[in-house]
Amino acid sequence: MTLRQAVEADASSIAALSVEVWLGTYLKRGISGFFADYVLSEFTADTLSAVINDPEEWIMVSQNEEGIDGFIRLRSGRPAPVDGGSDTVPEPVPDTEIVTFYVQPRHHGRGVGKALLEAALAHCSAQGIPSVWLATNAENTPAIGFYLAQGFKQIGHTHFELEGEAYLNNVYAIGL
User: Fold this and answer.
1) What would the DSSP string read from start to end of the chain?
2) Chain-centroid distance, C-alpha 5
3) Measured on CA atoms in the order 70, 174, 95, 156, is the torsion positive or negative?
4) Distance from C-alpha of 19 to C-alpha of 144, rounded to nearest angstrom
5) Which candidate, 74, 66, 54, 75, places its Cα nearest to that of 13?
6) Contact 71, 43 (CB under 8 A)
7) Which terminus of the chain has fewer CB atoms gathered within 10 Å of its CB, N or C?
8) Is the peptide bond before 92 cis (omega within 30 degrees of 0)?
9) Are 67 and 10 in contact (CB under 8 A)?
10) What percentage of residues in the chain have a pLDDT greater than 70?
């Protein structure tokens, strides 16, 4: 496994990995046109190329001998969707988000996710970022278990909204 910052040539690989993980994680009983349209419009090489070239974004990929098997994406300037002042919310409220954190399912349990997360947190620490946050589907038990095991704390809830439908997400943060 090699960790490196994403380059524009990775855009199509990151897009394909995103489609694979998103569909496998969130669609358990079949793929409707509603979700297929979302995935095929959201995870494109052009979209990911723009993200890779955006100075507010940072993407680290894990690459094995055949290609990319995971990535983590950070974006600064995105405050966590929670109210400050609670004893569960770090002060100041985190404004750097782990937007996307995907590892191919067949590589789970091999240290890819942990290595990517450690690299991302080290990057944030080097930038003087005091904490980061992420949101994950409230039913994504494996991801929740992973985040809690890495030291994240739940600080609230939000919703992933798509075409007028809202899906409950838990919000987690970790101090650096």
Assistant:
1) -EEEE--GGGHHHHHHHHHHHHHHHH-SS---HHHHHHHHHHS-HHHHHHHHH-TTEEEEEEE-SSSEEEEEEEEES---SS-TTSTTS-SSPP-EEEEEEEE-GGGTTTTHHHHHHHHHHHHHHHTT--EEEEEEETT-HHHHHHHHHTT-EEEEEEEEEETTEEEEEEEEEEE-
2) 15
3) positive
4) 20
5) 66
6) no
7) N
8) yes
9) no
10) 97
For 71-107, what is each residue's pLDDT tens digit? 999 999 999 998 765 667 777 788 999 999 999 999 9
Task: Note if the pTM is more than 0.85.
Answer: yes
Q: Distances from the Cα of 171 to the Cαs of 33, 60, 81, 127, in angstroms?
A: 28, 22, 8, 22
**Residue written as token pair 């939000």:** 158
Helices 45-53 and 11-26 cross at an angle (nearest 10°) of 110
Cα separation of 96 and 78, whole Å? 6
